[in-house]
Amino acid sequence: MSREPSHYLLEVKGLSSGYGRVPVLRAVDMSVKAGQIVALVGSNGAGKSTLLKTISGLIPKTEGSVEWDGVEISHRKPRAIVNLGLLHVAEGRRLFRSQSVESNLDLGFYGAGLDREAEMRRFDEVLGMFPMLAERRRLPAGSLSGGQQQMLAIAQALMRTPRLIVLDEPSLGLAPIIVDQVFELLLRLRGEGCAVLLVEQLVERALEIADHAFVLQNGRMVGSGRAEDVRQSEVLAQAYLTG
Fold it and tell me: Domains plus CATH for the chain?
């Protein structure tokens, strides 16, 4: 039986991109279903961050397509892609550190077109998910620990009630106990119907919580399947051994 195009929330087909005349991605295929955690794994320099940026409209494609609910979106501006419900939390916790936690969360509403009552409801919902932020809501973001800043970056994206949240190395530089909290949050988001596309240095941990996984090597997709199968595959080991 043939599936409808909208069977996948996100579908990447034959995608190529890079920086100027330097190609990075070559004919990449990848997909994410609604309410699914998908891990994108591969060694440093494999092109993972480039793929996330191309999906989010931050880097133009050179070939192929990015489809959202069966509709081509690779020609759209990043803000238009955000408005569809695809939120990208980039590596490095890019916050306004001199501004308060509240102000950073408010920025998550930019362009959403919600009335203030709806914004306040969502504000309370998100702070309910992050008690540590609620306690520090009036403090400057720069005064938070690394783990708290990472939570704030994720919380800012959640203000828009995303259908898919894209995370690039969320555990980077965090203490193990905070890493546990991040992964618990991702499982909670999946339980609430939000899909997650995850690039993560802790590959074993990522594959433990993921439903599906894709293996990127030198800008090409070299393997995919159920996360548990990928975890035990030679393709995964080979990707990290050869880069």
Answer: 5-85+163-242 (3.40.50.300), 97-161 (no CATH)
Q: Which residues of the chain have pLDDT under 50?
A: 1-6
Give the ranges where the chain is alpha helix by DSSP (H): 48-55, 78-84, 101-107, 116-129, 131-135, 146-158, 176-191, 203-209, 227-231, 234-242
Contact predicate 115/146, CB 8 Å: no
By the 8 A CB rule, do 122 and 128 touch?
A: no
Q: What pLDDT is attached to residue 121? A: 87
Tell me the whole-structure pTM to 2 decimals: 0.91
Other Cβ atoms within 10 Å of 151 Cβ, number: 24
Largest CA distance in the chain: 55
